[in-house]
Every structure is written in C-alpha cells, then in structure tokens.
C-alpha cells in the first residue's frame, strides 16, 4: 500500500497571560516563606523570560490538563473538518489530571462527538511524539484516514509551594534552613503549562501548505541508564528506585514523593551525548544529509544545552548552525510533551515555510533517556 501521511493543521492553546520571571513565586508560592536561592542561577541558564500557568495570579485553577488539551483540539475544527470527522484521538502528557481514566478518554469525554479510537501516551517530554507516532501509523497503515494527536502539560499544580511544606519543615529541623533539594527546586523555574494539537491526514491540504511526515524514530536507553527525572518515587541512599506504592503514606508529603525531581548531574552527563549518538545512527541508516535540512527544531529544557548540542552534533559530522534552529523556549517555557507541537505550530503559521523545506525535530526525554526524531517535508 503506497500511502503517505501529512500534518494538515496545527493548533495551540496557552492559558491566561504570560508569567514573567518576577511573578513565578508569587503564583507558585514561597517554600518555607523564602525565595529560592537557586532561582537566579536557574533562570540565567535556561533564559526563559515568560511561561504560562493554568491558574490566575492568585494561584486559583483556571484549566485542567483535559481543558487545555480540549481547547487545542477545538482550534483544529471548522466547517471543513468537524468534530464528527475525527477517527483517532491520540494524546500524550506527563501530567494527566488523574491516574484513571486515561487522559485521551477524558479529552474525548469533554470534546463529545462520536465514538473514536483513543490512545494515551504517558511519559515525559517524548509522550507527545509517542502520541503522534500512533496517529501517524494509524493513517499510514490505512486503518484510519485521519488522526488528531496532542501533547499537553499542566506542570504548575505540581510545583505549588504547599506541596513542599512538610518537607521544608523537616529540612528546617535537621539543617536549620528549610531549603529543599536542588533537584526539586530546579524545575519550578523551568516548567510551563499548555497544549498543542495536530491533524494528520492521508492527503495534503488542497490549498496551502502541509507537512509530509517522512519518518518518526524513537529509542530508549533505559537499559543502560538509571532514572533521571521522576515523580511518585524516591531514590534511597544506594540509588535504589522506590515507587510510591512501596512508601508509607506518612512519608508521601514529608519527602515530597509526588513532586517532579531531576538528577541534574545525570542529566548533564548523558542527555546530549546519547541524543547525538542516536541521531548519527538514524541519519546514517536513512542516508540523510543533516547539513541540508532547512530548519532544526530541538526541544530544549534550557538554553544551557543549545551550544552543547550544536558542538556535539558538529563533532559527529552533523553541523547544524544556529541560524537554522527554531525554538520558542524563551517566551513559552518548557511545556514538556506539548513543546514539539508548540514549536511546530508557531513555525507553521509564521509565513517562513515554503514548499520543499525540510524540518528535523529533536525531542530528548531525560526521565530515563528516551529520544524521538521526526523528519518533515513542506509540500
């Protein structure tokens, strides 16, 4: 069967007004009534200027993750493509509103419409691309003529100071300062809320541009490397990973078990190296000349990694100069599984693309080192 898959529509939804660096702690709250000592360093390195929260300036919830995702999907719809035409709904997120039902089921429940096939990908940054690949394969195989794929996050609720209150009090008793570990503080100044959605179809747009999906490749290095970013678990002194269900309930809040934590040492050592290693294998196998791509869209958790990625790729014979890079991290923030969609949506609607342009997307995930690469051609 000679079929192709095209991204024909892209949409995004960012809640409320942009939040500046000075406003972060006024919304998320101060841990132990004091501003983070690490905040200036973290913001200087990540170079994020604004981000979005699914809450108002008083910290009151305005949107759930389901709401964010639904609103992004609704922006794909019009008289030419209606809710009742959706065949597959595939949703990826790190931060579902509940453990059960699955996130895609909740989104379908709010959207309404007709019975559809659903798929939920729950992981970290690459969950959105895992959702995209399910939709891509569904259309490519002929089992569906279209698929709506999404990536979304509502990180802000996981970062509220009140969830660290007991741990901070415990630390204050032991150390006298009440300052939580850097691995937890680090992410409070990087993560953002929002959602992106893409419509995949078996035919390109009759008018206007489409993005032909050439390939989607993903690989995990969990067989080699330990968990780097995690939630609902702790590591003991020996580095053993212990999940929440094996931890006594009274320790859940005292140790902020459900906060998102990042091993920054592990991150710095492997995230760039393994990503370059995989891309080299993929482009060699597919005969891709990376230096000839028109745009490179890397999902960055921090601008700190940009120069390191550029240097690593060049050392492997894959020179992609900064002039070809497109990222919106500085004004959108790190939106995890939504970030690839938000980058692609902004570039797609920027007026910069022309037929024949090639786009290479890179989505690294540090949770346990999973990587995704996507190649697109403008048609």
UniProtKB/TrEMBL annotation:
Keywords: Acyltransferase, Transferase. Gene3D superfamilies: 3.40.47.10. Residues 87-203 form the Beta-ketoacyl synthase-like N-terminal domain. GO terms for biological process: secondary metabolite biosynthetic process. GO terms for molecular function: acyltransferase activity. InterPro entries: ACP_syn_III_C (IPR013747), Ketoacyl_synth_N (IPR014030), Thiolase-like (IPR016039). Residues 284-362 form the Beta-ketoacyl-[acyl-carrier-protein] synthase III C-terminal domain. SUPFAM superfamilies: Thiolase-like (SSF53901). Pfam families: ACP_syn_III_C, ketoacyl-synt. The keyword S-adenosyl-L-methionine does not apply. This is 3-oxoacyl-[acyl-carrier-protein] synthase-3. It comes from Chryseolinea serpens. The lineage of its organism: Bacteria, Pseudomonadati, Bacteroidota, Cytophagia, Cytophagales.
